[in-house]
Amino acid sequence: FHIGEREEKCIIEDIPSDTLVLGNYKVQRWDIHKHDFLESAPGLGMFVTVTSPSGEVLLSKLYGPQGTFSFTSYLSGEHIICFQSNSTRFAVIAGSKLRIHLDIRVGEHFLDESAIQAKDKVNEVNVRLEHLIEQIHHVTKEQDYEREREEKFRKTSEETNSNILWWAVVQTLILISVGIWQIKSLRDFFISKKLV
């Protein structure tokens, strides 16, 4: 994605509780002379801030033009991940665009292929098996979180439907009572005028 040099950009990630999140990013700065993004942006860093659903700041750190950040979610819900450059140029001069390449991985534990190749086959199978077990735990955690969200949504929907039903009953009673009152008022009017 692209941002201005002094602009802050935030991304919302829906993350279950007790989940490891790993993010890799790389910043490129627009070069006016070459009309292209430079491969590296020397001297330019990024402030990375992660906020939990309760508003607690989980991570706030300055990184270089490329880096890796990680955090563990303690609450399930929408976590806000914000990026802002550490540019000290004035807003008038700092009109340059930045391109950020971002890769966020939720709940994954990565295998180091070089370490696996160095070990014998039995250890390789053992490491891969442990990795699969971790992935199964992550999938189970993700399913529990989705089930919890679905249950909350269902309760909200049922409450809304119940309120709509009662509102319809109240409207019907009001209409019936207004109709009866109008009929009685007209009947009394006609009797008082001796038209009936």
UniProtKB/TrEMBL annotation:
It is a single-pass type I membrane protein. PANTHER family: TRANSMEMBRANE EMP24 DOMAIN-CONTAINING PROTEIN (PTHR22811). Pfam families: EMP24_GP25L (PF01105). Belongs to the EMP24/GP25L family. GO terms for cellular component: endoplasmic reticulum membrane. The chain crosses the membrane at residues 164-183. This is TMD11 protein. The gene is Tmed11. Residues 8-106 form the GOLD domain. It is found in: Endoplasmic reticulum membrane; Membrane. Keywords: Endoplasmic reticulum, Membrane, Signal, Transmembrane, Transmembrane helix.
